[in-house]
Design a protein that fits this description.
The protein has 309 residues and is an alpha/beta fold. The chain has a single domain, classed as 3-Layer(aba) Sandwich (Rossmann fold), CATH 3.40.50.720. It is built from eleven helices and seven strands. The chain has helices at 21-32, 44-58, 66-77, 88-101, 125-150, 174-193, 228-240, 251-261, 264-273, 290-296, 301-308, and strands spanning 12-16, 36-41, 80-82, 107-110, 156-161, 199-206, 245-248. The protein has a seven-stranded parallel β-sheet with strand order 3-2-1-4-5-6-7, with helices on both faces. Strand 5 (156-161), helix 6 and strand 6 form a beta-alpha-beta unit. Helix 1 runs parallel beside helix 2 (44-58), helix 1 (21-32) packs across helix 7 (228-240) and helix 2 (44-58) crosses helix 3. The protein is globular. The chain binds nicotinamide-adenine-dinucleotide. The site of nicotinamide-adenine-dinucleotide has 31 residues, from helix 1.
Length: 309
């Protein structure tokens, strides 16, 4: 008999880096299903805008009802938090605050991430550290915090956003690929640690997703890019019918398996023939990425403050 779908109505869902891109689309999709979504993002202004849009969808508002309007604003306020995931103490306090004000966290989606592009020899050490802090250290910290809270309750779901770059190497993004491979390894290990506890783990591996992070990236044969809404839908599906591996598009799974069966030289030849080796490297010096690269370089203020002191 087919397993019954889990309902997401009323579930407390925290998403890091959800002011825009994949996180924002996921927040919207989950909010539509009645989940109580809390957004944590470095970009407070954008996060508030996104949260207000969600609040407006989730809550009925009559601005002439002043009491109701105040309650609405309170509700919006408690659905958004300014966090820098590289500030581990602040990240923990944010999760504590969510549990105090909204309720026990049912789902944590570790989504915040950056992708500065450069050949390894051109990447400065500050960029390397930023990548490790946001894409890896913060995901380890968030996962550990979620396990501590969920394991005693015997329920919960941790969703880590890795990437296709967590399954294969791509020129132009060596450190990014290293962090995403590490997120896959982390998720697989914790998934095994949590076997039989009632706490679930999913690892999401999208291809190129059309968000600002992917500015300047072209299309490659057989590596068709997807929209943030496609990733959001795949996450919703994995929460309703739990599964560990979440490839977006789903065909990436088969392609990865086939490539791994081939001897390395043949696999690499296939990647080159399909243009996969150029997906990221062709955009490394693209002017279309200037704005994104500059934002990504300002994405770990807490970690950088720590490094200075
Ligand atoms: N876009 C793609 O092609 C793609 C593909 C595979 C995986 N991913 C992964 O998906 C996740 C989301 O990517 P996206 O494309 O939506 O990117 P995005 O740049 O559109 O959104 C990322 C969000 O994370 C926030 N953020 C960055 N640093 C932060 C910090 N220190 N603390 C809190 N928030 C922070 C940003 O403010 C932004 O709102 C990332 O982990 C990324 O690596 C993206």
């Amino acid at each position: 008999m087919a397993k019954r779908e889990r309902s997401l109505a009323g579930k407390v869902v925290v998403i890091t880096g959800a002011a825009q891109g994949i996180g924002a689309s996921t927040a919207t999709a989950l909010s539509r299903l009645g989940a109580k979504v809390v957004i944590g993002d470095l970009d407070q202004v954008l996060a508030e805008k996104t949260a207000a849009e969600l609040g407006a969808e989730a809550l009925p508002l009559d601005v002439t009802d002043t009491k109701g309007f105040t309650e609405f604003l309170d509700e919006v306020e408690r659905r958004v938090g300014p966090i820098d995931v590289t500030d581990t103490k602040g990240f923990t306090e944010f999760l504590d605050e969510v549990e105090r004000r909204v309720g026990p966290i049912d789902v944590l989606i570790n989504n915040a991430g950056i992708m500065p592009l450069a050949p390894l020899e051109e990447e400065d050490d500050a960029a390397t550290r930023r990548l490790l802090e946001i894409n890896l250290h913060a995901v380890i910290h968030g996962t550990r915090e979620a396990v501590k809270r969920m394991r005693p309750r015997g329920t919960g779901h941790i969703v880590n956003i890795a990437s296709m770059a967590g399954k294969a190497g791509f020129p132009g993004a060596a450190t990014y690929c290293a962090t995403k491979h590490a997120v896959v390894g982390l998720s697989e290990s914790v998934h095994l640690e949590l076997h039989g506890t009632g706490v679930l783990v999913s690892c999401v591996m999208p291809a190129v997703v059309r968000t600002e992070l992917a500015s300047g990236l072209g299309e490659a044969k057989f590596f068709k890019s997807v929209q943030p809404e496609d990733v959001a839908q795949a996450i919703v599906d994995a929460l309703r019918r739990p599964k560990f591996d979440v490839f977006v598009p789903a065909s990436l799974d088969a392609m990865g398996r086939i490539t791994r069966l081939l001897p390395r030289r043949l696999g690499e030849g296939l990647l080159r023939a399909l243009g996969g080796d150029k997906i990221l490297s062709s955009a490394t010096h693209s002017s279309a990425r200037a704005e994104y690269e500059s934002r990504a370089a300002r994405s770990a203020p807490a970690a950088e403050k720590g490094a200075d002191s």
